Amino acid sequence: MIVTQTARIDLSLISHTNVGKTTLARTLLRRDIGEVGDRPHVTDVAESDVLIESSAGDSLVLWDTPGFGDSGRLLKRLRQTEHPLGWFLAQVWDRFADRPFWCGQQAMLTVRDASDVVLYVANASEPPATAAYVGIEMEILSWLGKPVLVLLNQMGLPRDAAHTGAEVQQWEAHVAKYPCVKVVLPFDAFARCWVQEGTLLSHIQAVVPAPKTAAFERLREAWRQRNLTVFDLSMKVLSRQVAALAVDVERIEEVGLQGKARAWLGAAANAMAGGARGAHPELDRAQAALATRLDRQVRVATEELVRLHGLSGKATEEVLQRMGHEFLVLRQADADTASVLGGLVSGALGGLAADLAAGGLTFGAGAVIGGVLGAFGARGLAKAYNLARGADAGTVRWSSEFLSSRLVAALMRYLAVAHFGRGRGEFVAGAAPAHWLRAVEEALNERRKQIEAAWTLSRSGAADASAAAVLPIVSVAARTVLARLYPDSSTLLIQADEPREPR
Fold first, then answer.
1. Rounded to two decimals, what is the model's pTM?
2. Whole domain around residue 40: which residue ranges?
3. Which is nearest to 357 in space by CA: 379, 385, 327?
4. Are 440 and 412 in contact (CB under 8 A)?
5. In this structure, are 249 and 318 located in the same domain?
6. DSSP states of 267-297 as a string?
7. Taking Cα atoms as reference points, which of 46, 40, 200, 18 lies closest to residue 119?
8. pLDDT-derived band of residue 452, with 50, 70 and 90 as boundaries?
């Protein structure tokens, strides 16, 4: 019988005070721990929490330590601990005369004696050369004698690989003279993506003590299975939401001859005035019903994504609000599109507004289509409403063009949630950058034939069949996007046997 040798591996978060260790710890742990605030020494004692456990019984423990304040004084005191007077000052005098200073010393001694790897959280909002404390704190890290991974926090807006790489290189050059530093990684507490945690774990595994590498491999696999389960469930949420939209139909009630005449006159007057809607109340009602259901579907799906990713309910509205504000500037809508949006998006339809914005405002002339036979049989009326693409008599439904834009919006919403650090407070401004949209559109364009087939299938009205057709599209596209945004994660996300269509 083979007995598995289990192990406990300890990671310690260390940084200058008020750089964001506890915020990052909350993001990694996916639960609230400690206290955060915009003041020095919020954390005054070292606290530990289990980050991951394996089925064999291994554990990965994360320590949140007091931030460095007077780093130069701390370094001097730590070096004095080998001498009797220095020991007395550190263990007795400082405990009563300067407790925050004493807590910092105790935390460093704990890290030295118990930690396997140190994660140094750096403030990337200021150049390392201008932060005098960085060099001193590197000396402290060297004194600890542990391998160090530098995590660049407070990076601001998520940026493309070129900009991020340049910032990483700047820090790499600055800390190159310290052998304890093994790697520099971008890892923002507010806007990291979960796949970046996988990259972090791979670098940690490279430096853990040899007797613990097997245990760490089991921990990495436990992390991988947990996160891929969340990913798969997220893709099912998105596919169900888009499939429900694809099969949604609103019937239009028949009107009498007098009603048709009023509608035709209203449509003609509205067309001459340059308007896009409002000529027929029944059509307006049908469009509003579709829009209301879409708004509800977006909200429910976003709430489920937020829950799956271990975030609080507050994040749901923040995701929707940020998406609605950030994406409106990506593309300029034409007059007809603006008119349609102005009519549909009002009052409580914030989820719909965010979803439309996240798709780049590709509402299009055929956004709402419907049969124009029966109640709306006049050819001129159909043209005025721009609804001539429909085939079913007396119905209104979403066009294939619009449905494709909703795939874009669904994946953009997923990215917003997947990058949402639990942290402290509001979603970071600009958390939906243009290079995300380009990556999503490119990934979906590679699967356009599958997408067209899914919309054709949806016309049968079977929601389950439509969701089954949409699921592989969103799953493969999402993995493709994440792998392109974070190339280090490609082995985690991309399956070699996934078919791809030529561009």
1. 0.79
2. 8-189
3. 327
4. yes
5. yes
6. HHHHHHTT--S-S-HHHHHHHHHHHHHHHHH
7. 200
8. very high
